[in-house]
């Protein structure tokens, strides 16, 4: 189902020949802060507020399938296209054995796909350093979602049906992997507020209100960018 949706998105955007303002959103998130849920709700909101021939589409874990397609990679590369830092010794060893391309090469390919999708517009890009990759493309809104460990743990338990320890370990591993990924490949601190247009504490703001805030920023920036065309 998702593959059909993403294929339709790409085909529609490629068919639109007229030059127009580009709008996109990047979401960096702590595990359990609502990145997936807010991304999906935001896409629905923007489709209603900014109707066009192309629907807003969320690229989170599905992004790896676009990377595979863009660069003609084997489906087995899905195992290595993860948002985490692979130790250099392990990476070099596996590259020598031709288990997969060096991680840096895979990150570069991922960055190229992120950049392409952002330039096409109507995209919500979750994670994988998208905030940094797209920082020089006009029309983007860059968001960071955070929350207390306690609230995020409860959300993870509910979303994935985890037990308490499973949720704790998941959050610690995900947050650590994402921070290391951004530091190693972009030399950036994921918690640096200057990387983002807005940092939202989802303990304090509901997902629906977060969508209204982000959506409003997208609409205002879209109006500003349209004046350039």
Unreliable spans: 13-19, 86-100
What does the main sheet amount to? 5 strands, parallel
How many helical stretches?
A: 9
Strand percentage lies at: 5-15%
Can you give the mean pLDDT?
81
* First and last CA, distance: 35 Å
What is the string of helix and strand elements?
HEHEHHHEHEHHEH
> What form results from the Cα inertia axes?
globular
Helix and strand content put the structural class at alpha/beta
Give the quaternary arrangement of the chains.
single chain
Strands side by side in the biggest sheet:
2-3-1-4-5
Count all strands and give the number: 5
Question: What is Rg?
Answer: 18 Å
Tell me roughly what share of residues is in helical segments: 40-55%
Summarize the structure in words.
It is a single chain. The protein is α/β, with parallel strands linked by helices. Helix content is 54%, strand content 10%. The protein has nine helices and five strands. Strands 2-3-1-4-5 form a five-stranded parallel β-sheet, with helices on both faces. Helix 2 packs across helix 9 and helix 7 packs across helix 8. The two termini are 35 Å apart. 34% of the residues are buried.
In terms of topology, how is this protein built?
Blueprint: H1 2-15, E1 24-29, H2 35-49, E2 57-59, H3 63-70, H4 88-96, H5 103-120, E3 123-126, H6 130-133, E4 140-146, H7 149-160, H8 164-186, E5 198-201, H9 207-226
Parallel strand pairs: 1-3, 1-4, 2-3, 4-5
Helix pairs in contact: 2-9, 3-5, 7-8
